[in-house]
Amino acid sequence: MSADPFVQLGVALGLGLLVGLEREWAEQREAGIRTFALITVFGALCGQLAAAHGGWIISAGLLTVAALLIAIQRAMDHKADPDPGLTTEVAAVAMFAAGAALVLVSLGVGVVVGGGVAVVLQWKKPLHGFVSRIGESEIRAIMQLALVALVVLPVLPNRTFGPYGVLNPFQIWLMVVLICGISVAGYLAYKFFGSRAGTLLAGFLGGVISSTATTVSYANRSRQVPDASARGAIVIMLASSVVFLRVILEVAVVAPSVLWQVLPPLVLMTLAMALISAGLYRRTRAEGAGLALEDDDPLDLRAAITFGALYAAVLFAVAVAKEHFGNEGLFIVAGLSGLTDMDAITLSTAQLINAGRIDIDTGWRMIMVGAMSNLVFKGAAVAVLGHRQLLRRVAAVFGLALLAALALILFWPGVS
Q: What is the rounded CA–CA span in Å between residue 107 and residue 116?
């Protein structure tokens, strides 16, 4: 049922006052608090009239607002402003549309649009500052993310292929988009906050980007700077802990219907990793800024395609293993897949659980086996690339983590 007409007008007035307040505070004289309030209310009135007499009233109202804005702009042409911009004018048109949406669509849509306009206007300096600090690699990463998400994904067929009916091009590439989005977001956060961040934030962002890459980077650095081994061990352990938060997020996105059933053991493992990290941090009392990740390419299309192929291979391998070897074969696939990458085994397993192809108990244990093999691989990387001081610390905390994971696998009761 539509809202009361007076409620619609009242909400329109409030939204117009909100945006107008921001514009007047920003000293934009083309339109202030009263003008924006009147424009938004006018939009709501046009919407009410259009509901009764036809949509041409909306068009006429929009033309009226545009004509008034043009008249205001011409009247202010005498001001010596080399870059006047069109933000206020566009915002006024958007608020007219928000007022109409309050009536013709829903109060929720109108409120979200009006509030969003206010927020975007207020964020002028942070947004411009963000753009000014973006370099070529960040722009390339953002455009590549747009390519994989907005160009490639929509044209892929959303149906299964193959003898086991598990290879869906759309869903496979959707997982690529998810991982690329997480990686780009993590890289941008590290780019803009990492230089001022300490060890804790370095470990968190390193886990969001790639715990394996973080481990390799800090292992290499520890050989060059042995005194950084203590801090490096904390960052590596924190990054490995964040992996489990990332696993939970991925399961929530891919298989939300079973999230609450697989959540308890995953949360317990996350807490165990956090406690181990806290103990290591307390023991070493590391201070100072975190070391920078040696990664200038936040998103590589070749790596994205490789991940997609790996994800599809895991899906197919799990289907084959289940068909011919039972659960034992599934755990072998999980262990091999998790050596260098947790995302593929997590996403493929979550999708198979959601589709009912494997049971929940087997699924979360496969993810845990993949996590254990990933810890073993990172420990081996530290042994080969890192300093002995770093190896001693990492071996101790990884050993505790492996024991915690093994205990969960063996003794956690069934959840399905």
A: 14
- Distance between CA atoms of residues 233 and 192, nearest Å: 23
Query: Nearest Cα to 251, choosing from 378, 115, 371?
Result: 371
CA dihedral sign of residues 325, 331, 332, 338: positive
Find where tokens 């009226």 sit.
64
289 burial level (CB within 10 Å; 0-12, 13-18, 19+): middle
- How far apart CA 46 and CA 59 sit, in angstroms, is 9
Whole-number Å distance between alpha carbons of 228 and 381? 17
CB 415 within 8 A of CB 264: yes
- Mark out the alpha helices in 1-151 (DSSP H runs): 5-25, 33-53, 56-75, 87-104, 107-122, 124-133, 136-146
Q: First and final CA of the chain: distance in angstroms?
A: 41
Say how far apart CA 157 and CA 311 lie, in whole Å.
Answer: 17
Could you give the CA distance from residue 214 to residue 183 in angstroms, rounded to a whole number? 13
Average pLDDT over residues 195-209: 66
Torsion sign over Cα 384, 388, 394, 399:
positive
pLDDT interval class at 368 (50, 70, 90):
very high
- Taking the CA of residue 380 as centre, how many other CA atoms within 13 Å lie in the half-sphere pointing to its CB? 8
Q: Where are the beta strands (DSSP E) in 264-416?
A: none
3-state secondary structure of 28: coil
Report how far residue 268's alpha carbon sits from residue 273's, in angstroms, rounded to the nearest whole number.
9
Q: Which of 78, 108, 92 is nearest to 39 (CA)?
A: 92
**63-120, pLDDT tens digit by residue?**
888 887 777 777 666 554 545 556 777 888 888 888 888 888 888 888 888 888 888 8
pLDDT tens column, 29-61:
566 778 788 888 888 888 888 888 888 888 888
What pLDDT shows up at residue 54? 81
With beta carbons less than 8 A apart as the criterion, state whether 32 and 18 touch.
Answer: no
Structure tokens at 267: 């949360």
- Tokens for 376, please give them: 């073993």
pTM for the whole thing? 0.58
